């Protein structure tokens, strides 16, 4: 991929993309996590998702190696892998590009494995999750860019009893404030400060092939 789209975008938004070689060198530093299906990654100025696509590739390799014999198991874990990836970008075209790139990559691998057996429900779930996880926003103000400039809200997806998913929504500003120790004070079992953030919304359990915004 080209490192820049235009000089003006570099001037206006510092848009210079990271090369695949550098992305991989950096991800290798946390290889244990990139190979863990449920380990969550946020790319806060994601552009077209150069880091996220590589994390997805690594996670889908693990899913494929472990679960490809069962389509249902593959689908569960592939959806979980996608649900662990988060991105924000200030340019809408980058957000659309990033979502599509991640979806197309998932779909290419899924279709290659199961062909006509693939389910459109599974594709719809992946699309739905990407629409919640890759957001058009300003990572500095932690607000959305369009309309009322609401706080950026991310959905946390957790697998429950195999095929069910629990969704809890959190405000990014609150999550980061907690992470940097600006709220409350508890201690983790490693002796470090740790915080349990409060969700701003919880959803009933949903089947992973029937994800929706409905309560
Ligand atoms: C240096 S590029 C990096 C893109 C990608 N992470 C990569 O490594 O290839 C910076 C990206 O940040 C975006 N950006 C600039 N200011 C931002 C802000 N305040 N919030 C979110 N994204 C921003 C730009 O649109 C651009 O896509």
Q: What is shown here, in short?
A:
With 215 residues, the protein is of the alpha+beta class.
Question: Fraction of residues in helices?
Answer: 40-55%
Largest sheet: 4 strands, mixed
Main structural class? alpha+beta
Q: How many DSSP H or I helices?
A: 8
For the secondary structure, the number of strands is: 10
Taking strands numbered 1, 2, ... along the chain, how are they ordered across the largest sheet?
A: 1-2-3-4
Distance between the termini: 41 Å
Low-pLDDT segments? none
Bound molecules: S-adenosylmethionine
Task: Considering the chains and any ligands shown, give keywords for the structure.
215 residues, four-stranded antiparallel β-sheet, globular
Structure description:
- Helix 4 (50-67) runs antiparallel to helix 5 and helix 6 packs antiparallel against helix 7.
- A hairpin with a 3-residue loop joins strand 5 and strand 6.
- The chain has eight helices and ten strands.
- The strands form three sheets. Strands 1-2-3-4 form a four-stranded mixed sheet. Strands 5, 6, 9 and 10 form a four-stranded antiparallel sheet that branches. The chain has a two-stranded antiparallel ribbon with strand order 7-8.
- It has 215 residues and is of the alpha+beta class.
- The N and C termini lie far apart (41 Å).
- S-adenosylmethionine is lined by residues 13-18, 43, 45-47, 50-51, 88-91, 94, 138-140.
Question: What layout of secondary structure does this protein have?
Answer:
Blueprint lengths: L6 H7 L6 H9 L2 H4 L6 E3 L6 H18 L3 H13 L1 E5 L2 H23 L5 H14 E5 L4 E2 L8 E8 L3 E8 H8 L6 E2 L5 E2 L6 E2 L3 E2 L8
Parallel strand pairs: 1-2, 2-3
Antiparallel strand pairs: 3-4, 5-6, 6-9, 6-10, 7-8
Bound molecules: S-adenosylmethionine.
The site of S-adenosylmethionine (SAM) has 20 residues, from helix 4 and strand 2.
